[in-house]
Amino acid sequence: PVRGLWGGGGGSWNASAAALVLNVTSTVPPDVLFLLSFNVTNPLAGQAAPPVSLEASGGVAIARAAVEGAPGDAAPLVVARFETFLLAHSSPEAGGANTLTASLLPNVIVRAGSVLNVS
Hints:
Number of strands: 6
Number of helices: 0
Radius of gyration: 23 Å
Structural class: mainly beta
Order of helices and strands: EEEEEE
Strand order of the largest sheet: 1-2
Strand content: 25-35%
């Protein structure tokens, strides 16, 4: 739920605009930092961080501006995935020796100590 200046849960998702719409129920003074927090469910498939912007209308108009977040793997809404995952083998011969070669291209840093499972 969305809480705070939005009256304890008053937000709606506009699917056609892909936007969260909030109606401010308390006056926000200038130069005072306030926080907005809401829950989402990440997609099952990996994704790069999509662009996020913020704008205001109604009592005051504030032009749309890009929202800044952490860079790289820590960017909001990044979901780790392999951009490429190819598996090749050296021989299809029955009973013959075979070498499997995996080609991986992750969209995030794979840090030392990570474990990759191929199944």
